[in-house]
Structure formats: structure tokens, C-alpha cells
Amino acid sequence: MVTFELQKTEKNTKARLGKVCYNGQVYETPMFMPVGTQATVKTLSPEEIKETKAGIILANTYHLWLRPGDDVVKEAGGLHKFMNYDGPILTDSGGFQVFSLAKPKDIKEEGVFFKNHINGDRLFLTPEKSIQIQENLGSDIVMSFDECIGYPASYEYVSQSVERTLRWAKRGKDIFKRNNQILFGIVQGGAYEDLRKHCAEELVKMDFDGYSIGGTSVGEDKPTQYKMVEYSTKYLPENKLRYLMGVGDPIDIVENVIRGIDIFDCVSPTRLARHGHALTKYGKINLKNAKYKKDFTPISNECDCYACKHYTKAYIKHLINAEETFGARLLSIHNIRYLVHLMEEIREAIKNDRILEFREQFIKDYYGKDSK
What is the DSSP string of 41-80? Predict the structure, then answer.
């Protein structure tokens, strides 16, 4: 079972150091989690993921429910055996699919109707069903079923949605069997501080094992996102994990670590890779650009990933232009390693009580300008 120990909160900010323990292994926080929606991080093997020094990875309840089916994964011995990954696995509940796939009229008190995006079948997902699917999948960290609210949304709608999310959280927790799994509640509330406060406080009363912050990266600007996080973290217990869902822009990671977040996930590093983009200390670059055709240097001289050790920008540009999968693989390895390394630098800054100075230097390097 996953356990968490808070080791330090930085003296000038809410930035935290901690450690996640799992099967005798220790994973330090803050951390970035690669996303393996369908029981695979796109184009990469578990061995390649480990080489990036990533720890927890994420899989998606909704997608695995549809195929191959949670019953198949259970019969295989759970996600770890099915996908041959022995590190911690977190499963999303399907709540984001409420935001991205369901229509408002399909959201009921009992649960949510979906149209199967594969074959068009009508599906119905409830809080209880979401928990049962995740128990069958055998993930280590389970998410409560919630409604991920889009932005902007009216106060009246968000208020009603928060109450429903709280009722769903209790229903899921009531049937959770805790088979070497831990369960997180999800704080919603849009951009409204009082609703975020209410949702967080009510979830804390239910005593979840950890807490997620949802409803960000759904159309809001960055200052609004940061306020959503601030409105949520201030009401969460110090001794439990805090997970910001679906956030992976490097500056957003830095800013939200400062606001007290421990773990992040996002599909962006592999999605960017498939479109020829690489993350570097000095900003994002597009290897499709003509200037890289005869650039026989690594993506980054400062990176220790497999791609940077063995291949050049010119070669990877050729692969991307030729639509060879190996190019996307190499860029995926690099981009995930970049974010994992960023977390290593962030942890070192927190250890030395220098996260604010780190932010200043990061902005200067990444954007080529001062933050003022």
C-alpha cells in the first residue's frame, strides 16, 4: 500500500518535500506522473519509463472499462501484471470524462450517462461503479468519482455540482474495500473561494487518504488556475498527499508547488512529442523547423536521457518528418525526463529554502525574460 510522509514545508512558501513509500521503494515529492491512459504511456515501455526516473504513473478508469474491460485486467492479475509495471499506479475515476464526453442533461444524481466513443453504446457510470472498476483494475491510488466542472461556470451551477460531487464522494467511500489501495477525494468549486473551501472541508471530514484538486486546466487563465489551487490547499491537512489533476506546463508545476502541491500529471509531454516538440531549459522547441535539418547536436546538452545521449536534433527531425514512430518515442523519453528532472531541481530548491529564487531563474531561462 502507498504511504506518504511529509518531511518539510519551506519556510517562505507552502512548497513541501515528502516521500511516497511503496513495496520497499521510496519516491520523493513533489513529483510528476506520466500518463498511461490505456495501460501504456504512449509509445514507451515500462523499462523506458523507469529510465526517466519517473515513479507513479496514471491510467484511466473510463478507457480501461471500455477496453479491454476491467474484468479482463482483474483476471490478468491487475494492472501491474497486465502492463508489467511494478511501480505505483494511480487511476482517474472517469470524472474528467464527465467534463469532456457527457452533456449536462446526461448528469444525474445517480450517475452519468455516456455514449461509448468506440461503438456508440449508451453507458452509465456511478460513483459505486467507478470504485468497483478501480478495485478490479488493482491500482494503488483510487480517485473518487466527481464532476469536473468546465470554466467559466455560474456560481449556482458550481454550487449544485459541488454538493453532488460530495454526495458521490461519500457513496464511493462507503463501498471502498481498501484492498491495499488508498482513496482520494477531489476538491471542486470552480473559481469560487467559498465553494472550494466548503468542498475541501467536507471532504476532510470524510477522512480520505489523500486529496486531489480538480477542475483546473479546463479553459481558465493561469492566474485563475493558481487561485483555484490556493483556495483548495489552504483547507487540506498537512500530512496527506495533494494531487493537482491534469496540469503539466512547466511554469504551472513550479507555481503550484509553491502553493503546496505534491504530485502532478499531464498528457502533454507525450502529446508534444508526437507533434515534434521538445521541452528544454530554454523553452519549448519545434524540431519540424527547417533550422534543425543539419543540427547534429542533442536536444539538450544538459539532459541525461537516452535520446540526448545517443541522437541528434537532425535525426529526430528526420524521423518526425518521415512519420516514424521512433521519433515520437525519443521525444517522449526526453520530455518526460525533462519534467522529472525539473521536479528534482524543484526538490533541491525546497531543501535549501530557495524555491522563489528558483522560480525567478526558471522564468528567465525558459521564457528569456524577467518575471517582473
Answer: -TT--HHHHHHTT---EEEEHHHHHHTT-HHHHHHTTSHH
Residues carrying an active site annotation: 92, 265
Residue found by looking up cell 536534433 in the block: 313
Query: Going by DSSP bridges, is the β-strand pair 57-60/31-34 parallel, antiparallel, or unpaired?
Result: unpaired
Q: Which of 241, 233, 266, 265 is nearest to 2 (CA)?
A: 241
List 265's β-bridge partners, or say none.
33
Residue 99's pLDDT is 82
Q: Are 233 and 261 in contact (CB under 8 A)?
A: yes
Cα 203 from Cα 55, distance rounded (Å): 27
Q: What one-character-per-residue DSSP string does 155-214 give?
A: HHHHHHHHHHHHHHHHHHHHH---SS-EEEEEE--TT-HHHHHHHHHHHHHHT-SEEEE-
CA 119 to chain centre: 28
DSSP string, 297-321: S-S-TT--SHHHHH--HHHHHHHHH
| Residue 370 clears pLDDT 80, i.e. is over it | no
Closest by CA to 263, choosing from 210, 322, 208, is 210
Task: Supply the pLDDT for residue 98.
Answer: 80
User: What count of other Cβ atoms lies within 10 Å of the Cβ of residue 235?
Assistant: 17
pLDDT in tens, 47-67: 999 999 999 999 999 999 999
Relative to beta strand 25-29, strand 16-22 is: antiparallel
